[in-house]
Amino acid sequence: MVKVRVKYVTGVLREHHDKILEALQLLEKVLSSPSPDPDDVLKLVQFAQRFVDACHHGVEEYILFQGANRSGFPFTGGPIYVMVSEHGVGRYLARMMEELHRAWREGDRNALAELVDYAKLYIEHIAQHIDKENNVLFPMLESTAAEVPASKSVEEIERENEHDKWIAVLEELKKKYGV
């Protein structure tokens, strides 16, 4: 068990948030085109699953939230409970996008419209979630504890979940779509 500086972790998470917001903007742009590229849509759905959920939420759940809870910050009835619950909603919406993408690729004529609807729900959900973390939870945690205990480092979680690969995928798509 190591001690991790809360402001370091929240700083990294805010950087992740900036990239996630760029990906949400890109997902909206790609899906609003008259003829969306299915491969690019899949890359953005996978970004939601692998970068947003596995990597970013992994840092929050394995380090920041767990460390705050172990340091006496309440889970039940508190903002961490809400954030973890919202992670589950985001995970479900990303899975729905994955399934609808598969159906679309297999010729289901209604699947693309449904995918667009679920993507809009995902975009709105994650954008609101980020706003709550950046403007409520992170400042609260930063003022409560300087350090929290953690069994993994930010860098370990990023490495395990291919952080650099997914940022490169995002940057490639941003260039392609001029975002």
Automatic annotation (TrEMBL):
InterPro entries: Hemerythrin-like. It comes from Pyrobaculum ferrireducens. This is Hemerythrin HHE cation binding domain protein. Pfam families: Hemerythrin. Residues 12-141 form the Hemerythrin-like domain. PANTHER family: BLL2471 PROTEIN-RELATED, HEMERYTHRIN-LIKE DOMAIN-CONTAINING PROTEIN. GO terms for cellular component: plasma membrane.
